[in-house]
Amino acid sequence: MTLPGHAFFGGRIVPYSEARVGVLTHGLNYGTGVFSGMRGYWNDEEQEVFVFRPADHYRRFLESAKMLGMELPWSARELAETATELVRTEGYREDCYLRSLAFYGDETVGVRLHDLTPQVSIVAIPYGRYIEKEEGAHATISSWRRVDDNAIPARGKIVGAYVNSALAKSEAMRAGFDDAIVLTNDGHVSEGSAANFMLVRNGVVITPPITDNILEGITRRTVMELLDKEMGVKVVERSVDRSEIYVADEALFVGTGVQIVAITRVDHRPVGTGRIGPIASALRELYFRVVRGQHPSYRHWCAGVYGPAAEPEKAAPKRRVDSSRLAI
């Protein structure tokens, strides 16, 4: 992976080499942090990078921080402006990924969430596919269960909770699969290792509800709206049994990282025909038009980085690039 040239760290954009923390940092030792992942999409015709739904991502980021008792000094809009400024500083003219992190930065020992000071960082890197076989992924039902809301809030992107995802993902990949499908403690389908899950039966898209310990996914919300308004496909939120996957017509992972992935085999069983289905295929084509700013009805979801589309508001001085500190 290519390291970024810069990071938003300590309230300003600095060279990436200066964005460092100590090994006693609380967030590193105890997982007391939250994160957000966003994508920027290159539109070659307009020579523009569009960051997809940054304000929505940062609203969830702030909600996740609230779950850990963090009070951050920025609004979702200010963070979104900083993210686009960072991409502009990097000069990317390709698809990229933005990772934002809020973590307790105190160098101290002791498990707690009070009397600690949060720090925020943002980085942007070039990025392509998260799962290589987007049109035909093979998944397995994980032996690991999804974290429960009464243990670690599943609806937020809490750093420590992703050990659960890592266990499921590595177990699946070491067994020869592309990803895992994780169940709740009562045996219902929750989500993938790091993506929301949907299946298709008889022309209806079914997806687990928020109460089945899923992440409140922004891509999930996007896809549900596109299915309903643009494709005329009914979407039902309800608990999903494991065996329903084996008799589904189609199955999908949806998320910022995975984007739209067609699951064509689960536990060595074909899903539907064993190939990408018509709903997944049409949804992928529509989704990539939307995120690249090519669908006028959803242009408001796309924040341009360069040119007139960017329309950046004047950022607060503490978030501006410190040109005297940039690497030559």
Description:
The protein is an alpha+beta fold. Helix content is 24%, strand content 28%. The strands form two sheets. Strands 7, 8, 9, 10, 11, 12, 13, 14 and 15 form a nine-stranded mixed beta sheet that branches. Strand 1 (6-9) and strand 2 (12-15) form a beta hairpin.
Order of helices and strands: EEHEEHHEEEHEEEEHEHEEEHE
Which outline best applies? Answer: globular
The proportion of residues in beta strands is 25-35%
Mean pLDDT equals: 93
Helix % is 10-25%
Distance between the termini: 22 Å
Radius of gyration: 20 Å
By DSSP (H or I, 4+ residues per run), the number of helices equals 7
Number of strands: 16
Uncertain residue segments: 311-328
Q: Quaternary arrangement of the chains shown?
A: single chain
Helix/sheet category: alpha+beta
Largest sheet: 9 strands, mixed
Question: Layout of helices and strands, plus pairs?
Answer:
Blueprint: E1 6-9, E2 12-15, H1 26-30, E3 33-43, E4 48-52, H2 54-67, H3 76-90, E5 96-104, E6 118-126, E7 137-145, H4 162-174, E8 179-183, E9 189-192, E10 196-201, E11 204-207, H5 218-229, E12 235-237, H6 242-246, E13 250-255, E14 259-266, E15 269-270, H7 278-291, E16 302-304
